[in-house]
Amino acid sequence: MAPLPILAFTATTALGRGVEAQKTALIGRRSGLQPNAFGPDDADGAPLRCWTGRVEGLEDAALPTQWAQWECRNNRLAWMALQQDALLARLEALVQRHGADRIAIVVGTSTSSIGASEEAYRGLVPGNDGTPAFPPGLARPIVHTVHSLGDFVQQATGLRGPCITVATACSSSAKVFAQASRLIDAGIVDAALVGGVDTLCGSVLYGFNSLQLVSREPCRPFDARRDGLSLGEAGGFALLERAGAGEAMGLGLHGYGESSDAHHMSSPHPQGLGARMAMSDALARAGIEADAVGYLNLHGTATPANDSIEAAAVAGLFPDSLHASSTKGWTGHTLGAAGIVESVFALLALRDGHLPGTLNSSQPDDACGPQIRFDDATSSIRYAMNNSFGFGGNNCSLVFART
Hints:
Blueprint: E1 4-13, E2 16-17, H1 19-28, E3 34-35, E4 51-53, H2 73-82, H3 87-98, E5 103-108, H4 114-122, E6 125-126, E7 132-133, H5 148-157, E8 163-166, H6 172-185, E9 191-198, H7 202-210, E10 231-232, E11 234-241, E12 251-260, H8 273-286, E13 293-297, H9 304-315, E14 323-325, H10 328-331, H11 338-352, E15 354-355, E16 377-378, E17 383-390, E18 394-402
Parallel strand pairs: 4-10, 5-8, 5-9, 13-14, 13-17
Antiparallel strand pairs: 1-2, 1-11, 1-12, 3-4, 6-7, 9-11, 12-18, 15-16, 17-18
């Protein structure tokens, strides 16, 4: 594929707002996970005992009044993330260069504004015909659809190109890069705003807990003692532009690979075939061999099955010298936002040469190969990869490069 320059990128997570907050926490090995304070437990009225990565300040935030129709926790986080790292100023420069109708919006989310729907059902009131109805403040159809995020971002930015919401579980905001690449390559647009946002809500927390996937302690990816994930929330965005159309920051998307192994609703293929296919296709599109990759940000959720299967797929493809790690010990698993957040971490590794290790993990698992690193490293690298794998075996791998 033709490399796509990246003009800007940002992330807002439990580590803070913007890329400098992410960088400082990664280098300082400071986790954003805290004891969960979200939602009552059905058994005893206390919050579910686990750790979550919550974004500070969301409860006190509110959308500007002109966008009150889209008011909800998820869209508040989207607006918060859009305002970081001069992203909107750089987007305005893109609009001046190409026009608002030549810039696509491609955003990923797994649950969108479902938290608002939960709130609406908890507050049902008698309707005009006597049947239960959403309370007036939540009777806003747009926030109860999966496209709530995409529709809000379109309103907030004024962009008029294609507006697409990708909802493929935890691969959602990685696949937005692939979708944007195809739109630009086809000549439909000249640039794209890509990203993803997901916020914590009852459906997420108790849904994963019902699958017995939530750890009671901070998650320990690839550790022999790992026993489940920690959930988080996050939002992030990046700007992509056709090569040669304007100034870039020396970083670009060079390859993507997508697959769907369709092995099981919530478990990966036992031999990691889909994961390996996505990684191989990303390398092929980038035109590089596996040994050219200096850093791989793994999906690494800290569930027993996911980590060992992903590690085996990596070991079958990459040399022992690869530095591969999971950063979910810092942020928690941010679901549909994981792709954009961990792409930002890969881009920071390219830009600054700091390769994160794996937080909270110290006891290696014999089932995981030498590529899995717990300690940080410093190295000037040319290529970095990000893996994002979702339920149903929906996989996406991305290759970024310094140009």
